[in-house]
Specification:
With 727 residues, the chain is of the alpha/beta class. Helices cover 34% and strands 14% of the residues. The strands form 5 sheets. It has a 7-stranded parallel β-sheet with strand order 9-8-7-10-11-12-13. It has a 7-stranded parallel β-sheet with strand order 22-21-20-23-24-25-26. β24, α24 and β25 form a beta-alpha-beta unit.
């Protein structure tokens, strides 16, 4: 997914832009984003030809704003275009300041004219000789692009960092020059978070010291001394970004209470927030440093913080060496004012204070947080993909962004004239915000759609739909200027995607923001059906409790849960159900090797081995009535069916008969085949819970979805990458 993050709210009229300029660029409305494929390049050939011929911008690219690549028909001469592209790419000079990953070097060498600075004995002369030809730099956490290097390369367009941190790139200089910068987030999150936990265990359980104890033969003379347990220790995290959250998630599995410090409190997190690092350190057993390195976070762990952590506290640093005042750390450890430390980074790498070498309460690693074969390859691929995207004038996968303030009129002066059609009444906030920005047409206000389209079709460039009314083939064909369909939903079954692809129309949806709410309601439905929560509520309200206690119900804990569709929502449901001790299994189109849940190759087998079956897959031709009589019978008279997907996933007449005949134990439904129609036979049953399609209907999520719709539309018409592109 291409990320264009609006860093502050529209009310503050602050926006986040891609590297290059604070001024929004106007691009052709034909601009499209293509998903960037792995760096084989062969996969790009079918997309490249026609776009290159029609949309290549001739002015110097490094002063451009972030470009969106069009999605046009496949060229017939793709093979020749591809080889032309390869030959052009090979003439582009890319500078590597120091030696890095071998795979990265090899792949860059295949694609570009790679200049290895470390191979030159006379670096100044080398740079002077090649200065005019170098258009890209590939750096890392040790060597990036300082002001002097940037100034010496007049045609430099992009710096691709083989790391997450960009502290080795001169921020002021790349902003001034309009140079684009990328890094490699996400792909290394798991490895670094894993290592943080590994360091905690290694320090507390003295794993390295124990290994040495065995290897030295000392075990023959007696057992090793007792160590300290990890489970239940309080963990404080400095920086609750991707890696910080990854550490927290893992630490929670060890029953560790989590707290954190960051620049601002994260309202979506349940962890305790402290407004200062000293307070955080005073209230935790283990302090993990996982924030970016900036001027503000340099030596964020100083003597005061270490003293607050205390003689039983453990410091873990998987951020950057300069986060910690190293002389103070050494003295605290030597003097016993700090209980231990696990370090993967240091102030003056590869130099490490020798005083630490003799201590058994420290674990010292050579900056290998992301040092696995898989992750380094993924990082290398991301560097290559970003470079190829840049020179193909396509959206960068992981651009680094900076914030600038602009007035709202800068954005909206042109947008006021853009015709936008809403297919039906939705969230009031969404309607109000769209009305502020666009020329909004509300289709439900027009009694004759024929007359409406006759007079307005040519002015409509965008459609906003939802799960009720989206954009079918007829609507799309009636709007000749249509460029984008933004769905106020995750589901896309009300949009003719084939027609959109055929017409080159972009499509967006609102994933992620509603994941938690929908997953929550799935668990709520399970509890409501099994514990008869709604029936109990009626029992109390009717006064029946005065006549006797309510009957016993069924527990949720440790019931086996089968999930149809292990995407964002399915995975979130699994995570929550696991907290109830529920074994998880699933069915999807393919096996998910990254999960440890049991996989079934067909839904019948899944149902036969589950006590609760949850439907959370996308609605397609293949998943229409995926829950039929065979599945219901496999689930059986004690089984519970939960549907938070789409109504058409379930054969509703079969569901009704199974419930009426006792062939199914119960059901919790938020969606139905013919909404808002619901089979009346279900109304008399006390083993069903029926909701009016409110899975994502919280104020917070509805607003977040609306904001995402608006941001996608603004990004599109400003020629920026879409936040959540589908087509």
């Amino acid at each position: 997914m291409f990320i264009f993050h609006w860093f502050t709210s529209l009310a503050a009229k602050s926006y986040t832009y891609r590297l290059g300029s604070c001024k929004p660029s106007r691009q052709s409305h034909k601009n499209r984003i293509l998903p960037l494929l792995p760096p084989t390049l062969l996969a790009l050939q079918a997309r490249w030809g026609e776009w290159h011929n029609h949309h290549y911008h001739n002015h110097h690219y490094h002063h451009h704003h972030h470009q969106e690549a069009p999605q046009d028909p496949k060229p017939n001469n793709s093979r020749s275009i591809f080889f032309k592209f390869r030959s052009e790419m090979e003439s582009i000079s890319v500078l590597m300041p120091i030696q890095m990953n071998k795979y990265l070097e090899q792949e860059l060498e295949k694609r570009f004219n790679l200049l290895k600075l470390w191979n030159s004995p006379h670096k100044t002369h080398f740079l002077k000789e090649h200065s005019n030809s170098i258009r890209a730099i590939v750096g890392n956490a040790s060597a990036g692009a300082d002001a002097e290097l940037i100034e010496s390369l007049p045609n430099l367009e992009i710096v691709a960092s083989f790391s997450v941190g960009i502290d080795k790139v001169d921020l002021n200089k790349w902003r001034e020059k309009g140079i684009r910068v990328t890094n490699t987030p996400d792909v290394l999150t798991d490895d670094v978070a894993d290592l943080a936990i590994g360091l905690i265990l290694a320090v507390l359980r003295r794993l390295c010291e124990s290994d040495r104890y065995v290897r030295s033969g000392k075990w023959k003379k007696g057992d090793y001394k007792l160590t300290t347990k990890f489970t239940g220790k309080t963990v404080g995290i400095i920086g609750m970004g991707r890696i910080g959250k990854g550490v927290a998630k893992r630490a929670e599995a060890f029953s560790c209470p989590i707290s954190y410090y960051s620049r601002s409190e994260k309202p979506d997190l349940k962890y305790k927030y402290y407004p200062s690092v000293v307070e955080l350190a005073s209230n935790c057993d283990i302090l993990v440093v996982a924030c970016p390195l900036t001027q503000e976070t340099r030596h964020i762990v100083n003597r005061e913080v270490m003293n607050a952590l205390g003689p039983k506290g453990v410091l873990i640093n998987i951020g950057r060496g300069p986060h910690v005042d190293e002389p103070e750390l050494v003295s605290a450890l030597v003097e016993g004012r700090l209980g231990g430390a696990g370090l993967d980074v240091y102030e003056n790498e590869p130099e490490v204070p020798e005083e630490l070498f003799g201590l058994e309460n420290v674990v010292l690693l050579p900056h290998v947080g992301s040092g696995t074969v898989e992750t380094r390859k993924a990082m290398a691929d991301l560097v290559i993909n970003n470079l190829e995207a840049h020179f193909l004038k396509k959206p960068l996968l992981t651009p680094v962004v900076y914030v600038c303030l602009v007035l709202l009129w800068v954005f909206t002066s042109d947008m006021d004239n853009i015709g936008l059609l809403m297919t039906c009444s939705m969230f009031a906030y969404l309607e109000e915000e769209l009305q502020k920005r666009f020329k909004l047409f509300k289709l439900w206000h027009y009694p004759s759609t024929h007359d409406f389209f006759k007079h307005n079709a040519n002015s409509i460039r965008a459609v906003v739909g939802n799960t009720k009314i989206g954009a079918d083939a007829e609507l799309i064909d009636s709007l000749p200027k249509l460029e984008i369909v933004a769905s106020y939903s995750v589901g896309l079954d009300k949009i003719d995607l084939r027609k959109c692809e055929e017409k080159g129309i972009r499509v967006t949806n609102t994933p992620d923001v509603l994941t938690d709410d929908v997953a929550d309601i799935a668990i709520g439905l399970m509890l409501a059906v099994l514990r008869k929560i709604c029936v109990c509520d009626g029992f109390v309200r009717s006064g029946s409790w005065k006549s006797g206690d309510f009957g016993l119900t069924s527990k949720l804990s440790r019931k086996s849960v089968g999930i149809v569709g292990l995407g964002r929502i399915g995975t979130a449901i699994a995570k929550r159900a696991q907290a109830f001790g529920c074994p998880i299994s699933y069915y999807s189109r393919t096996h998910k090797p990254h999960t440890n849940y049991k996989y079934y190759t067909n839904i019948i087998d899944l149902a036969a081995n589950s006590e609760i079956l949850v439907i959370s897959c996308a609605l397609t031709e293949q998943t229409h009535h995926i829950v039929n009589r065979g599945v219901i019978d496999a689930l059986g008279p004690k089984g519970i069916l939960i549907n938070i997907g789409r109504g058409l996933h379930v054969d509703e007449p079969e569901l009704v008969s199974a419930l009426m005949e006792g062939r199914l134990g119960g059901a919790g439904f938020d969606v139905f085949e013919k909404e808002p129609e619901v089979p009346e036979q279900l109304f008399e049953l006390d083993n069903v819970v029926l909701l009016p399609h409110v899975g994502s209907d919280t104020v917070e999520t509805s607003k977040a979805m609306a904001d995402l719709v608006i941001q996608n539309l603004e990004a599109f018409f400003l020629g920026k990458p879409l936040l959540t592109p589908v087509v």
